[in-house]
Specification:
The protein is an alpha+beta fold and 317 residues long. The protein has helices at 49-58, 66-72, 80-92, 110-118, 131-144, 157-166, 191-203, 209-219, 221-224, 230-237, 273-285, 290-296; strands at 3-10, 13-25, 31-35, 178-179, 185-186, 242-246, 250-254, 260-265, 298-302, 305-312. This is Asparaginase.
Length: 317
């Protein structure tokens, strides 16, 4: 069962609606909003990345900087700063880029992609948006003398560490894994469990792996995402927020006090994510400044001018 979450209006008429499921937890973990199917397992996609980074830290990955830890939790755009930190992780452990078992890609950022094409640069797994977490996992493998060539295998010690970490939120010890777009196993969670996992990131003890990942993401939201990304826009606007987008309409995050949210848009539409997350931030803060209000009300254009809005359905929060 899904709920109407985000509406698109044009010239005063509701043109379409994005349906999905959403949960909001208070700092004690109680549900203050639950819409749709919040207890049905989903594939969180890249919203699992902060906990994959936590698992890499627990397994022996030692980042050379907070920037490297941020890139380990990133869905980056292949911009120069992103590649710099991915390559720094690999170089420090003597690992060749070819060891990244993600699909070879060109940068997701349009400008960098055009420059790569103009330079006749071949696709590389380092450009792929998930290469930061792959690099961190490979580094953990190198530290432990685990085989590099099989780190995608669900039975590999690195992937078992990820499964163990996410099982802390009620996930199964032997879950029905999926395969993410980058080739790594993906652990299913319910939206309620996903929100709880983000609450843990912001409430964990100082210097713990969880707190370290949260701090790195807050300090370097550009590295977690890239130019124009939803994560960057929201974390740059809301102090203390840690959030992460995932493919196919998933978004999760937690505010500084431990209030946490997670939602999934049924149709996978990315345009619905930012206004809904910004509306959750407005609810949490009890007010909205100009920048946050702009994120919560995205423009619909007609003839180059604004004629409508993409926004959370009024009254649902």
């Amino acid at each position: 069962m899904s709920a109407d979450l985000v509406e698109v209006t044009r010239s005063g008429t509701r043109e379409c609606v994005h349906r999905g499921s959403l949960v909001l937890l208070d700092p004690g973990g109680a549900r203050t909003v639950a819409l749709g199917s919040v207890d049905a397992p989903i594939f969180p996609r890249s919203t699992n990345k902060p906990w994959q980074a936590v698992a890499a830290l627990r397994s022996g990955f030692v980042p050379g900087s907070s920037e490297e830890l941020a890139i380990a939790a990133a869905s980056h755009a292949g911009e120069p700063a992103h590649l710099q930190h991915v390559r720094a992780i690999l170089a420090r452990h003597g690992i060749d880029e070819a060891a990244i078992a993600a699909p070879p890609s060109l940068p997701a950022n349009e400008r960098e992609r055009a420059l790569a094409i103009a330079a006749d640069a071949p696709p590389s797994p380092a450009y792929m948006e998930c290469s930061g977490k792959h690099a961190a996992m490979l580094a953990a493998c190198a530290v432990n003398d685990w085989p590099l060539e099989s780190y995608l295998d669900p039975a590999h010690p690195m992937q078992l560490a990820v499964i163990e970490a996410l099982a802390e939120f009620g996930g199964e010890d032997e879950p029905d894994l999926g395969i993410d777009g980058c080739g790594l196993p993906i652990v299913p969670l319910t939206l309620a469990q996903l929100a709880a996992s983000f609450a843990r990131l912001v409430s964990a003890p100082i210097a713990s792996p969880e707190a370290s990942v949260a701090d790195a993401m807050r300090r370097h939201p550009y590295l977690v995402s890239g130019t124009g990304a939803d994560d960057l826009a929201l974390m740059s606007t809301v102090d203390g927020l840690v959030c992460k987008t995932g493919a196919d309409g998933v978004f999760a995050g937690a505010f500084a006090d431990g209030t946490a949210f997670a939602f999934k848009i049924d149709d996978g539409g990315e345009r619905a994510r930012l206004p809904l997350a910004a509306a959750l931030a407005e609810r949490h803060l009890g007010s909205s400044d100009e920048d946050l209000a702009a994120l919560a009300s995205r423009p619909v254009l007609g003839g180059g001018v604004r004629v409508g809005t993409v926004r959370a359905v009024p009254g649902i929060l």
